[in-house]
Amino acid sequence: MASRGKTETSKLKQNLEEQLDRLMQQLQDLEECREELDADEYEETKKETLEQLSEFNDSLKKIMSGNMTLVDELSGMQLAIQAAISQAFKTPEVIRLFAKKQPGQLRTRLAEMDRDLMVGKLERDLYTQQKVEILTALRKLGEKLTADDEAFLSANAGAILSQFEKVSTDLGSGDKVLALASFEVEKTKK
């Protein structure tokens, strides 16, 4: 998606040219084979081809008038979510567990982090960042948070995570958010 439509526009242009060539060739072939076809078969095939040309022309008009774009509203939402996820979740493990819908493992990771903070194995800033990520992921997975967790989240959630919450709520379906989170997991593996 990094091209933001350039590759897709090129592919669309190529497909449109191929479709036009195919329809024109179909009409030419039909005229050349007219003698071999009975009148009804010829008329029916010609009518179908002309209908296809008419539909093709309507599609071209829509594209040219701006009523149809490659990066439409849904794609725009996907781009916004992808950007929000990539900025909101910096910990690949959290992204992976979120994408795989594994709240139990997220809670286990949270307990491990609490222990690591107490023994001095984890810095406070990193702990806060990761705990906010995990609590946000748990909330998005429909898990109930304790009052303490809610208070921690309210006190420490930044603007980026708030934007992630807003965008993912506006989208409506958690599955779409999870699908994009999965994409982010794959991207971080590379």
TrEMBL record:
Taxonomic superkingdom: Eukaryota
Coiled-coil annotated residue ranges, if any: 6-59
InterPro entries given in the database record: ICAT_dom (IPR009428), ICAT_sf (IPR036911)
GO BP field: negative regulation of Wnt signaling pathway
UniProt keyword annotation of Coiled coil present: yes
Residues annotated as domain Beta-catenin-interacting ICAT: 113-187
GO MF terms, alphabetically ordered: beta-catenin binding
Keyword Coiled coil part of the UniProt annotation: yes
Entry keywords, A to Z: Coiled coil
SUPFAM superfamilies cross-referenced by the UniProt entry: beta-catenin-interacting protein ICAT
GO cellular component term of the entry, any: cytosol
Subunit annotation: Does not interact with CTNNB1.
Annotated family: Belongs to the CTNNBIP1 family.
Protein name, entry field: Protein LZIC
Organism of derivation: Myotis myotis
Source species taxonomy: Eukaryota, Metazoa, Chordata, Craniata, Vertebrata
